[in-house]
Write a sequence for this structure.
């Protein structure tokens, strides 16, 4: 097994990102015990930066620290998923309304370009999901509320723990795209309430896919 070379600066942050991506890609499944010795050896590092990285992931809700048992990938319950979707629906629907009311033509065009990319990638679930995330991130950036950005970023990390299940549900990609089309239509029509309602419906449908 090859050793991954990491730069010395902010080593624990780089380790945290390595583990974060393994969790998001479900290489490390929810409930999995994180073998510190094995991972430290694999990355060619000591356990000190690894433990600092685990603290970062614990603060994000991706890792759960258990006394005398070590670190585990967080398991999300149905209630956790419902709570996260509820908050995301509130925050992102507010953002959609703000963008519909105040975005420039150029800013809306940047969202439309991402929406068009979604249309082109409906046959590839992983690419569709990546572009979908870029669309939502861009929308939040345009809404220009850094506190909302921070909260949503943390919530989306937790949502990704469960995303693998809903992403591949048959028909969900086409449904999601149609929901995005309604959001985009409301944005282009500069209808704040229409954008708010469309985004809330998008999350309501996403929740049904995530927790049948």
């Amino acid at each position: 097994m090859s050793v991954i070379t990491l730069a010395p600066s902010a080593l624990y942050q780089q380790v945290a990102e390595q583990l974060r991506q393994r969790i998001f890609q479900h290489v490390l499944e929810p409930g999995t015990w994180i073998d510190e010795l094995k991972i430290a050896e694999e990355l060619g590092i000591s356990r000190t930066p690894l433990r600092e990285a685990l603290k970062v992931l614990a603060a994000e809700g991706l890792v759960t620290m258990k006394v005398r048992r070590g670190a585990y990938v967080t398991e999300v319950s149905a209630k956790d998923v419902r709570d996260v979707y509820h908050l995301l629906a509130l925050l992102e629907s507010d953002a959609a309304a703000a963008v519909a009311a105040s975005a420039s033509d150029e800013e809306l065009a940047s969202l439309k370009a991402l929406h068009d990319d979604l249309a082109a990638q409906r046959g590839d679930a992983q690419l569709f999901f990546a572009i979908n995330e870029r669309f939502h991130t861009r929308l939040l950036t345009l809404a220009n509320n850094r506190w909302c950005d921070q909260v949503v970023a943390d919530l989306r990390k937790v949502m990704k723990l469960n995303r693998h299940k809903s992403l591949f549900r048959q028909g969900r990609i086409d449904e999601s795209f149609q929901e995005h089309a309604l959001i985009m239509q409301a944005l282009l029509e500069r209808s704040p309430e229409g954008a708010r309602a469309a985004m809330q419906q998008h999350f309501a449908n996403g929740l049904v896919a995530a927790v049948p």
Notes: The chain has nine helices and two strands. The longest helix spans residues 78-102. The first strand starts at residue 63 and ends at 66. The chain has a mean pLDDT of 90.
